[in-house]
Amino acid sequence: MDKLLIRGGRRLSGQIKISGAKNAALPILAATLLTDKPCVLENVPQVRDVDTISALLGKLGSNVERDNPGIVTSSKAKGFEAPYDLVRTMRASILVLGPLVARYGRARVSLPGGCAIGARPVNLHLHGLEMLGAKIHLEGGYIKAEAPRLKGAEMWLDLPTVTGTENLMMAAVLAEGETVIENAAIEPEIVDLASALGRMGARIDGAGTPTVRVQGVSELGGLRYRIMPDRIEAGTYMVAAAITQGDIELLDCQPEHLHTVTAKLRETGVTIEEGDRQVRVRAQNRPQPTEIKTAPYPGFPTDMQAQVMALSCLAEGTSVITEMVFENRFMHVLELDRLGADIIIEGHSAIVRGVDRLYGAPVMATDLRASASLVLAGLAAQGETVISRVYHLDRGYERMEEKLGRLGADIRRIK
Ligand code: EPZ
Protein backbone atom coordinates (compact mmCIF):
# COMPACT_ATOMS: atom_id res chain seq x y z
CA MET A 1 0.00 0.00 0.00
CA ASP A 2 1.34 3.41 -0.98
CA LYS A 3 2.27 6.06 1.55
CA LEU A 4 2.80 9.79 1.25
CA LEU A 5 5.86 11.35 2.83
CA ILE A 6 5.59 15.09 3.54
CA ARG A 7 8.25 17.42 4.95
CA GLY A 8 6.20 20.32 6.23
CA GLY A 9 6.80 24.01 6.83
CA ARG A 10 6.96 25.28 3.24
CA ARG A 11 4.74 28.06 1.94
CA LEU A 12 2.81 26.94 -1.15
CA SER A 13 2.53 29.32 -4.07
CA GLY A 14 1.66 29.18 -7.74
CA GLN A 15 -1.24 28.09 -9.92
CA ILE A 16 -3.05 24.77 -10.27
CA LYS A 17 -5.92 23.64 -12.45
CA ILE A 18 -8.94 22.17 -10.69
CA SER A 19 -10.06 18.80 -12.08
CA GLY A 20 -13.56 17.66 -12.96
CA ALA A 21 -15.92 16.92 -10.07
CA LYS A 22 -15.87 13.27 -8.91
CA ASN A 23 -19.39 13.63 -7.48
CA ALA A 24 -20.74 14.89 -10.81
CA ALA A 25 -18.81 12.38 -12.95
CA LEU A 26 -20.17 9.38 -11.01
CA PRO A 27 -23.91 10.02 -11.54
CA ILE A 28 -23.34 11.20 -15.13
CA LEU A 29 -21.41 8.02 -15.91
CA ALA A 30 -24.27 6.01 -14.38
CA ALA A 31 -26.69 7.97 -16.57
CA THR A 32 -25.00 6.59 -19.72
CA LEU A 33 -26.78 3.30 -18.90
CA LEU A 34 -30.00 5.03 -19.93
CA THR A 35 -29.07 4.98 -23.61
CA ASP A 36 -27.34 2.66 -26.08
CA LYS A 37 -25.92 5.63 -27.98
CA PRO A 38 -22.29 6.70 -27.53
CA CYS A 39 -21.59 9.24 -24.79
CA VAL A 40 -18.42 11.32 -24.65
CA LEU A 41 -17.59 12.89 -21.28
CA GLU A 42 -14.83 15.45 -20.91
CA ASN A 43 -12.98 16.77 -17.86
CA VAL A 44 -13.56 13.43 -16.06
CA PRO A 45 -11.12 13.27 -13.12
CA GLN A 46 -8.60 10.41 -13.13
CA VAL A 47 -9.52 9.11 -9.67
CA ARG A 48 -10.15 5.60 -8.33
CA ASP A 49 -13.88 6.09 -7.88
CA VAL A 50 -14.18 6.80 -11.63
CA ASP A 51 -12.16 3.65 -12.36
CA THR A 52 -14.51 1.70 -10.09
CA ILE A 53 -17.72 2.88 -11.72
CA SER A 54 -16.16 2.40 -15.17
CA ALA A 55 -15.41 -1.23 -14.21
CA LEU A 56 -18.99 -1.59 -12.99
CA LEU A 57 -20.39 -0.17 -16.25
CA GLY A 58 -18.16 -2.65 -18.08
CA LYS A 59 -19.67 -5.51 -16.08
CA LEU A 60 -23.11 -4.21 -17.02
CA GLY A 61 -22.26 -4.43 -20.71
CA SER A 62 -21.09 -0.89 -21.42
CA ASN A 63 -18.00 -0.33 -23.47
CA VAL A 64 -16.01 2.24 -21.52
CA GLU A 65 -12.74 3.56 -22.82
CA ARG A 66 -10.81 6.33 -21.24
CA ASP A 67 -9.24 8.50 -23.87
CA ASN A 68 -7.94 12.00 -23.56
CA PRO A 69 -9.60 14.11 -22.22
CA GLY A 70 -12.47 12.06 -21.04
CA ILE A 71 -14.42 8.85 -21.28
CA VAL A 72 -16.48 7.31 -24.08
CA THR A 73 -19.21 4.87 -23.19
CA SER A 74 -22.01 3.06 -24.93
CA SER A 75 -24.12 0.39 -23.33
CA LYS A 76 -25.38 -2.20 -25.78
CA ALA A 77 -25.64 -5.35 -23.66
CA LYS A 78 -28.30 -5.92 -21.03
CA GLY A 79 -26.36 -6.58 -17.84
CA PHE A 80 -28.25 -5.60 -14.74
CA GLU A 81 -26.28 -6.93 -11.78
CA ALA A 82 -23.92 -4.79 -9.68
CA PRO A 83 -21.86 -7.30 -7.66
CA TYR A 84 -20.91 -6.96 -4.01
CA ASP A 85 -17.17 -6.98 -4.63
CA LEU A 86 -17.48 -3.74 -6.60
CA VAL A 87 -20.27 -2.05 -4.66
CA ARG A 88 -18.55 -2.53 -1.30
CA THR A 89 -15.51 -0.58 -2.54
CA MET A 90 -17.65 2.37 -3.54
CA ARG A 91 -21.10 3.20 -2.18
CA ALA A 92 -21.83 5.45 -5.11
CA SER A 93 -22.28 2.25 -7.16
CA ILE A 94 -25.86 2.48 -5.91
CA LEU A 95 -26.25 5.11 -8.65
CA VAL A 96 -26.65 2.37 -11.29
CA LEU A 97 -29.87 1.18 -9.62
CA GLY A 98 -32.18 3.90 -10.96
CA PRO A 99 -30.87 3.77 -14.54
CA LEU A 100 -31.01 -0.06 -14.68
CA VAL A 101 -34.63 -0.22 -13.47
CA ALA A 102 -35.58 2.59 -15.87
CA ARG A 103 -33.86 1.04 -18.89
CA TYR A 104 -34.30 -2.73 -18.35
CA GLY A 105 -37.17 -2.90 -15.84
CA ARG A 106 -34.98 -4.89 -13.47
CA ALA A 107 -31.79 -4.62 -11.41
CA ARG A 108 -29.88 -6.61 -8.84
CA VAL A 109 -27.55 -4.30 -6.94
CA SER A 110 -25.63 -5.20 -3.81
CA LEU A 111 -26.55 -3.21 -0.72
CA PRO A 112 -23.61 -0.88 -0.09
CA GLY A 113 -23.17 -2.04 3.50
CA GLY A 114 -21.70 0.14 6.17
CA CYS A 115 -19.24 2.94 5.64
CA ALA A 116 -16.51 4.46 7.75
CA ILE A 117 -18.27 7.84 8.08
CA GLY A 118 -21.71 6.59 9.00
CA ALA A 119 -24.53 4.12 8.46
CA ARG A 120 -25.52 5.76 5.15
CA PRO A 121 -28.63 3.66 4.45
CA VAL A 122 -30.29 3.78 1.04
CA ASN A 123 -33.87 3.49 2.27
CA LEU A 124 -34.89 6.76 0.59
CA HIS A 125 -33.57 5.55 -2.78
CA LEU A 126 -35.63 2.35 -2.47
CA HIS A 127 -38.80 4.06 -1.22
CA GLY A 128 -38.67 6.48 -4.14
CA LEU A 129 -38.32 3.64 -6.64
CA GLU A 130 -41.32 1.91 -5.06
CA MET A 131 -43.28 5.14 -5.48
CA LEU A 132 -42.43 4.88 -9.21
CA GLY A 133 -43.90 1.37 -9.27
CA ALA A 134 -40.81 -0.78 -8.80
CA LYS A 135 -41.13 -3.97 -6.74
CA ILE A 136 -38.19 -3.98 -4.35
CA HIS A 137 -37.04 -6.80 -2.14
CA LEU A 138 -33.80 -7.48 -0.32
CA GLU A 139 -32.24 -10.92 -0.30
CA GLY A 140 -28.74 -12.12 0.43
CA GLY A 141 -27.41 -8.59 0.78
CA TYR A 142 -28.76 -7.63 -2.63
CA ILE A 143 -31.46 -5.22 -3.71
CA LYS A 144 -33.70 -6.86 -6.30
CA ALA A 145 -35.83 -4.37 -8.20
CA GLU A 146 -38.40 -5.13 -10.88
CA ALA A 147 -40.78 -2.86 -12.79
CA PRO A 148 -42.41 -3.55 -16.16
CA ARG A 149 -42.51 0.20 -16.76
CA LEU A 150 -41.97 2.89 -14.17
CA LYS A 151 -44.82 5.35 -13.71
CA GLY A 152 -44.26 8.98 -12.74
CA ALA A 153 -45.28 9.88 -9.17
CA GLU A 154 -45.14 12.65 -6.59
CA MET A 155 -42.70 11.90 -3.81
CA TRP A 156 -41.26 13.62 -0.76
CA LEU A 157 -37.72 12.83 0.42
CA ASP A 158 -37.41 12.71 4.23
CA LEU A 159 -33.84 14.00 3.80
CA PRO A 160 -32.35 15.92 0.86
CA THR A 161 -30.19 12.93 -0.08
CA VAL A 162 -27.72 13.74 -2.88
CA THR A 163 -27.36 10.33 -4.56
CA GLY A 164 -30.99 9.57 -3.65
CA THR A 165 -32.13 12.60 -5.64
CA GLU A 166 -29.82 11.61 -8.49
CA ASN A 167 -31.00 7.99 -8.55
CA LEU A 168 -34.67 8.97 -8.58
CA MET A 169 -34.16 11.67 -11.21
CA MET A 170 -32.49 9.09 -13.47
CA ALA A 171 -35.26 6.58 -12.88
CA ALA A 172 -37.94 9.19 -13.63
CA VAL A 173 -36.57 10.33 -17.00
CA LEU A 174 -37.85 7.13 -18.71
CA ALA A 175 -40.95 6.67 -16.53
CA GLU A 176 -44.42 7.22 -17.94
CA GLY A 177 -45.80 10.66 -17.11
CA GLU A 178 -44.68 13.28 -14.65
CA THR A 179 -42.57 12.78 -11.51
CA VAL A 180 -42.24 15.43 -8.83
CA ILE A 181 -39.45 15.04 -6.26
CA GLU A 182 -40.02 17.28 -3.22
CA ASN A 183 -37.27 18.12 -0.72
CA ALA A 184 -34.72 17.17 -3.37
CA ALA A 185 -31.04 17.86 -2.74
CA ILE A 186 -29.87 21.04 -4.48
CA GLU A 187 -26.08 20.45 -4.72
CA PRO A 188 -24.40 21.76 -7.91
CA GLU A 189 -23.64 18.14 -8.91
CA ILE A 190 -27.42 17.55 -9.16
CA VAL A 191 -27.66 20.47 -11.59
CA ASP A 192 -24.75 19.07 -13.61
CA LEU A 193 -26.47 15.67 -13.86
CA ALA A 194 -29.75 17.31 -14.88
CA SER A 195 -28.06 19.30 -17.65
CA ALA A 196 -26.31 16.17 -18.92
CA LEU A 197 -29.64 14.29 -18.91
CA GLY A 198 -31.20 17.25 -20.71
CA ARG A 199 -28.57 16.95 -23.45
CA MET A 200 -29.67 13.30 -23.83
CA GLY A 201 -33.27 14.40 -24.36
CA ALA A 202 -34.64 14.19 -20.83
CA ARG A 203 -37.16 16.82 -19.69
CA ILE A 204 -36.24 18.04 -16.19
CA ASP A 205 -37.21 21.31 -14.49
CA GLY A 206 -36.19 22.62 -11.10
CA ALA A 207 -32.86 20.82 -10.66
CA GLY A 208 -30.96 22.82 -8.03
CA THR A 209 -34.23 23.67 -6.24
CA PRO A 210 -36.06 21.54 -3.64
CA THR A 211 -38.76 20.63 -6.21
CA VAL A 212 -37.63 18.71 -9.30
CA ARG A 213 -40.17 17.96 -12.04
CA VAL A 214 -39.46 15.27 -14.66
CA GLN A 215 -41.61 14.55 -17.73
CA GLY A 216 -40.84 10.96 -18.75
CA VAL A 217 -39.74 10.31 -22.34
CA SER A 218 -39.60 6.99 -24.23
CA GLU A 219 -35.88 6.95 -24.95
CA LEU A 220 -32.73 9.00 -24.64
CA GLY A 221 -29.95 9.81 -27.08
CA GLY A 222 -26.21 9.98 -26.47
CA LEU A 223 -24.31 13.05 -25.38
CA ARG A 224 -21.07 14.96 -25.34
CA TYR A 225 -20.64 16.72 -22.01
CA ARG A 226 -17.95 18.48 -19.97
CA ILE A 227 -18.06 17.66 -16.24
CA MET A 228 -18.19 20.66 -13.86
CA PRO A 229 -15.09 21.53 -11.78
CA ASP A 230 -14.70 19.85 -8.39
CA ARG A 231 -15.73 22.34 -5.68
CA ILE A 232 -14.38 20.13 -2.88
CA GLU A 233 -10.99 19.72 -4.53
CA ALA A 234 -10.92 23.51 -4.95
CA GLY A 235 -11.88 24.04 -1.30
CA THR A 236 -9.15 21.62 -0.24
CA TYR A 237 -6.46 23.60 -2.08
CA MET A 238 -7.84 26.86 -0.68
CA VAL A 239 -7.13 25.43 2.77
CA ALA A 240 -3.66 24.37 1.58
CA ALA A 241 -2.91 28.05 0.84
CA ALA A 242 -4.33 29.11 4.21
CA ILE A 243 -2.54 26.49 6.33
CA THR A 244 0.89 27.12 4.75
CA GLN A 245 0.41 30.94 4.70
CA GLY A 246 0.98 30.76 0.96
CA ASP A 247 -0.47 32.26 -2.19
CA ILE A 248 -2.28 29.91 -4.58
CA GLU A 249 -4.38 30.62 -7.65
CA LEU A 250 -6.94 27.95 -8.58
CA LEU A 251 -7.80 27.86 -12.29
CA ASP A 252 -10.88 26.40 -14.02
CA CYS A 253 -13.03 26.39 -10.89
CA GLN A 254 -16.46 27.86 -10.11
CA PRO A 255 -16.21 30.28 -7.15
CA GLU A 256 -19.99 30.54 -6.95
CA HIS A 257 -20.08 26.94 -5.65
CA LEU A 258 -17.77 27.79 -2.77
CA HIS A 259 -19.39 30.81 -1.11
CA THR A 260 -19.81 29.30 2.38
CA VAL A 261 -16.26 27.92 2.32
CA THR A 262 -14.94 31.29 1.13
CA ALA A 263 -16.90 33.13 3.82
CA LYS A 264 -15.56 30.86 6.58
CA LEU A 265 -11.96 31.06 5.36
CA ARG A 266 -12.20 34.86 5.19
CA GLU A 267 -13.36 34.77 8.84
CA THR A 268 -10.11 33.01 9.73
CA GLY A 269 -8.19 35.90 8.16
CA VAL A 270 -7.48 34.46 4.69
CA THR A 271 -7.54 36.84 1.69
CA ILE A 272 -9.64 35.44 -1.16
CA GLU A 273 -10.12 37.12 -4.55
CA GLU A 274 -12.74 35.60 -6.85
CA GLY A 275 -12.63 35.75 -10.66
CA ASP A 276 -15.28 34.22 -12.89
CA ARG A 277 -13.39 30.92 -13.23
CA GLN A 278 -10.50 31.34 -10.82
CA VAL A 279 -9.85 32.03 -7.15
CA ARG A 280 -6.69 33.45 -5.55
CA VAL A 281 -6.10 32.55 -1.89
CA ARG A 282 -3.45 34.21 0.26
CA ALA A 283 -2.63 34.07 3.98
CA GLN A 284 0.07 35.99 5.77
CA ASN A 285 -0.42 34.98 9.38
CA ARG A 286 -1.78 32.44 11.78
CA PRO A 287 -5.51 31.71 11.25
CA GLN A 288 -8.21 33.01 13.57
CA PRO A 289 -10.58 30.41 15.13
CA THR A 290 -13.98 29.76 13.55
CA GLU A 291 -17.34 28.05 14.16
CA ILE A 292 -18.53 25.54 11.56
CA LYS A 293 -21.77 23.60 11.31
CA THR A 294 -22.05 21.33 8.27
CA ALA A 295 -25.31 21.28 6.31
CA PRO A 296 -26.69 20.32 2.90
CA TYR A 297 -25.88 22.80 0.10
CA PRO A 298 -25.65 25.77 0.19
CA GLY A 299 -24.58 25.28 3.84
CA PHE A 300 -21.02 24.47 4.81
CA PRO A 301 -20.19 21.19 3.01
CA THR A 302 -19.59 18.13 5.19
CA ASP A 303 -16.94 17.16 2.60
CA MET A 304 -14.90 20.20 3.69
CA GLN A 305 -15.24 19.64 7.47
CA ALA A 306 -12.04 17.63 7.95
CA GLN A 307 -9.99 20.03 5.85
CA VAL A 308 -11.06 23.14 7.79
CA MET A 309 -10.46 21.25 11.04
CA ALA A 310 -6.81 20.84 10.02
CA LEU A 311 -6.57 24.62 9.59
CA SER A 312 -8.32 25.26 12.92
CA CYS A 313 -5.68 23.15 14.71
CA LEU A 314 -3.26 26.08 14.26
CA ALA A 315 -5.70 28.91 14.98
CA GLU A 316 -5.16 31.62 17.60
CA GLY A 317 -7.99 30.37 19.82
CA THR A 318 -10.66 27.70 20.07
CA SER A 319 -12.86 26.63 17.14
CA VAL A 320 -16.03 24.56 17.32
CA ILE A 321 -16.79 22.25 14.38
CA THR A 322 -20.15 20.49 14.35
CA GLU A 323 -20.91 17.66 11.92
CA MET A 324 -24.65 17.56 11.28
CA VAL A 325 -24.83 15.37 8.14
CA PHE A 326 -23.00 12.13 9.05
CA GLU A 327 -22.91 10.51 12.44
CA ASN A 328 -19.26 9.45 12.49
CA ARG A 329 -17.14 11.80 10.45
CA PHE A 330 -14.48 12.60 13.04
CA MET A 331 -11.99 9.78 12.40
CA HIS A 332 -9.37 12.36 11.42
CA VAL A 333 -9.49 13.87 14.94
CA LEU A 334 -7.36 11.21 16.61
CA GLU A 335 -4.89 11.25 13.71
CA LEU A 336 -4.61 15.06 13.90
CA ASP A 337 -4.03 14.73 17.66
CA ARG A 338 -1.04 12.51 16.82
CA LEU A 339 0.41 15.51 14.96
CA GLY A 340 0.11 17.60 18.12
CA ALA A 341 -3.37 19.03 17.67
CA ASP A 342 -5.55 19.58 20.74
CA ILE A 343 -9.07 18.43 19.79
CA ILE A 344 -11.76 16.88 21.95
CA ILE A 345 -15.06 15.49 20.67
CA GLU A 346 -18.29 16.42 22.45
CA GLY A 347 -21.19 14.64 20.74
CA HIS A 348 -21.57 16.02 17.21
CA SER A 349 -18.97 18.73 17.87
CA ALA A 350 -15.20 18.86 17.89
CA ILE A 351 -13.65 21.49 20.16
CA VAL A 352 -10.37 22.50 18.52
CA ARG A 353 -7.98 24.43 20.76
CA GLY A 354 -5.43 26.06 18.47
CA VAL A 355 -1.77 25.16 19.07
CA ASP A 356 1.32 27.08 17.95
CA ARG A 357 2.75 24.23 15.96
CA LEU A 358 2.08 20.72 14.63
CA TYR A 359 4.80 18.08 14.55
CA GLY A 360 5.24 15.47 11.83
CA ALA A 361 4.42 11.85 12.71
CA PRO A 362 3.21 8.63 11.04
CA VAL A 363 -0.59 8.79 10.62
CA MET A 364 -3.26 6.69 8.89
CA ALA A 365 -5.94 7.76 6.44
CA THR A 366 -9.40 6.39 7.23
CA ASP A 367 -11.67 7.95 4.59
CA LEU A 368 -11.38 10.25 1.62
CA ARG A 369 -11.66 13.67 3.23
CA ALA A 370 -9.92 12.63 6.46
CA SER A 371 -6.88 11.75 4.35
CA ALA A 372 -7.01 15.19 2.74
CA SER A 373 -6.99 16.81 6.18
CA LEU A 374 -3.91 14.79 7.17
CA VAL A 375 -2.10 15.97 4.04
CA LEU A 376 -2.98 19.57 4.86
CA ALA A 377 -1.79 19.20 8.46
CA GLY A 378 1.41 17.52 7.23
CA LEU A 379 2.12 20.46 4.92
CA ALA A 380 2.12 22.76 7.96
CA ALA A 381 3.70 20.41 10.51
CA GLN A 382 7.35 20.72 11.45
CA GLY A 383 9.27 17.67 10.33
CA GLU A 384 8.19 14.55 8.49
CA THR A 385 4.65 13.18 8.23
CA VAL A 386 4.05 9.75 6.70
CA ILE A 387 0.45 9.03 5.73
CA SER A 388 -0.48 5.38 5.16
CA ARG A 389 -3.51 3.94 3.31
CA VAL A 390 -3.45 6.75 0.75
CA TYR A 391 -5.75 4.69 -1.47
CA HIS A 392 -8.47 6.63 0.39
CA LEU A 393 -7.01 9.86 -1.00
CA ASP A 394 -6.69 8.44 -4.52
CA ARG A 395 -10.45 7.82 -4.60
CA GLY A 396 -11.22 11.49 -4.97
CA TYR A 397 -8.10 13.56 -5.64
CA GLU A 398 -6.36 13.53 -9.01
CA ARG A 399 -2.54 13.40 -8.68
CA MET A 400 -2.57 15.35 -5.41
CA GLU A 401 1.15 14.99 -4.68
CA GLU A 402 1.94 16.24 -8.22
CA LYS A 403 -0.28 19.32 -7.83
CA LEU A 404 1.09 20.08 -4.37
CA GLY A 405 4.67 19.48 -5.55
CA ARG A 406 4.17 22.04 -8.32
CA LEU A 407 3.14 24.51 -5.62
CA GLY A 408 6.41 23.93 -3.77
CA ALA A 409 5.45 21.24 -1.27
CA ASP A 410 8.06 18.66 -0.29
CA ILE A 411 5.85 15.60 -0.80
CA ARG A 412 6.43 12.24 -2.42
CA ARG A 413 4.70 8.89 -2.76
CA ILE A 414 6.50 5.84 -1.43
CA LYS A 415 5.34 2.46 -2.74
C1 EPZ B 1 -23.08 12.32 -1.30
O1 EPZ B 1 -23.18 11.13 -0.57
C2 EPZ B 1 -21.61 12.46 -1.65
N1 EPZ B 1 -21.20 11.33 -2.48
C3 EPZ B 1 -20.79 12.51 -0.36
O2 EPZ B 1 -19.45 12.73 -0.74
C4 EPZ B 1 -21.27 13.68 0.48
O3 EPZ B 1 -20.57 13.68 1.70
C5 EPZ B 1 -22.77 13.56 0.75
O4 EPZ B 1 -23.48 13.45 -0.50
C6 EPZ B 1 -23.33 14.75 1.51
O5 EPZ B 1 -23.09 15.91 0.79
C7 EPZ B 1 -21.49 11.37 -3.81
O6 EPZ B 1 -22.10 12.30 -4.32
C8 EPZ B 1 -21.01 10.19 -4.62
P1 EPZ B 1 -26.63 11.67 1.26
P2 EPZ B 1 -24.65 10.51 -0.29
O7 EPZ B 1 -27.48 10.59 0.70
O8 EPZ B 1 -25.56 10.79 -1.42
C9 EPZ B 1 -28.83 9.94 5.04
C10 EPZ B 1 -17.17 12.39 -0.74
O9 EPZ B 1 -16.42 12.72 0.16
N2 EPZ B 1 -29.55 9.06 4.10
O10 EPZ B 1 -26.90 13.07 0.85
O11 EPZ B 1 -24.46 9.09 0.12
C11 EPZ B 1 -27.36 9.57 5.15
O12 EPZ B 1 -27.19 8.56 6.12
C12 EPZ B 1 -18.48 11.72 -0.43
O13 EPZ B 1 -16.98 12.63 -1.97
C13 EPZ B 1 -30.55 8.22 4.59
O14 EPZ B 1 -30.82 8.20 5.80
O15 EPZ B 1 -25.11 11.35 0.94
C14 EPZ B 1 -26.70 10.85 5.55
O16 EPZ B 1 -26.77 10.98 6.96
C15 EPZ B 1 -18.49 11.25 1.01
N3 EPZ B 1 -31.22 7.41 3.73
C16 EPZ B 1 -27.57 11.93 4.92
O17 EPZ B 1 -28.80 11.28 4.52
C17 EPZ B 1 -30.96 7.40 2.38
O18 EPZ B 1 -31.61 6.66 1.63
C18 EPZ B 1 -26.97 12.55 3.69
O19 EPZ B 1 -26.63 11.50 2.83
C19 EPZ B 1 -29.94 8.27 1.90
C20 EPZ B 1 -29.26 9.09 2.78
Model description:
The protein is of the alpha/beta class and 415 residues long. The chain has 14 helices and 24 strands. It has a 4-stranded mixed β-sheet with strand order 22-23-1-24, covered by helices on one side. It has a 4-stranded mixed β-sheet with strand order 2-15-17-16, covered by helices on one side. Strands 4-5-3-14 form a 4-stranded mixed β-sheet. β8 and β9 form a beta hairpin. α1 packs parallel to α7 and α8 (231-243) runs parallel beside α12 (368-380). The protein is elongated, with a radius of gyration of 21 Å. The chain binds ligand EPZ. Residues 23, 26, 92, 118-125, 159, 161-164, 185, 302-303, 325-326, 368-369, 396 line the site of ligand EPZ. Ligand EPZ binds next to α1, α5, α6 and α12.
Short account of what is shown:
The protein contains 14 helices and 24 strands. It is α/β, with parallel strands linked by helices and 415 residues long.
